[in-house]
Every structure is written in C-alpha cells, then in structure tokens.
# Entry
Amino acid sequence: MMSAVKLQSIITCPKCAHAKEETMPVDACQWCYECERCHAVLKPKAGDCCVFCSYGTERCPPMQQQQSCSCCSPTAGTPR
Ligand SMILES: [Zn+2]
# Structure
C-alpha cells in the first residue's frame, strides 16, 4: 500500500528567492538543481539527500515513504 506521495515540490532558490514547481523523480534523488533565474547550482545541505529535501516544499519520495535513500548514499540503510 503506497501512501500518497507528493511528486510536485516547489524549490525556492536560496540566492534569489525564485520559486519553481518541479516534478520529482520517484526512484531517484536529484543532487543538483540549477536555478532557472540566477543559474546558481544548488546542492543539498549537509544531512539532506537531495535538493528537494533542502530547498523544496516536499521531501523526496523515498523520504516521504520513510525509506532510506539508497540512490545517493553508498552506505545505504544506515539511519542518521
Ligand atoms: Zn536563483
């Protein structure tokens, strides 16, 4: 049973405050995101697995389902 996972997340650029709704990939995390306005390349903050967790309104789908995010951590399954 999949609980409802939101796939739309609004990313807000920390540099220019430009907000853009993006669709998150279900099975992967997005590590880099380029702001379409100021072209700053955003990277996740420490402890976050992807840019959606750091700058988006919703966390990425694996985090919403409370799974460990294996796509970006080589030591998958180690909870913080
Ligand atoms: Zn920006």
Confidence is low (pLDDT under 50) at residues 74-80. The CA atoms of residues 2 and 11 lie 24 Å apart. The pocket of zinc ion is lined by residues 13, 15-16, 18, 35, 37-38, 40 (CB under 6 Å). The radius of gyration is 13 Å.
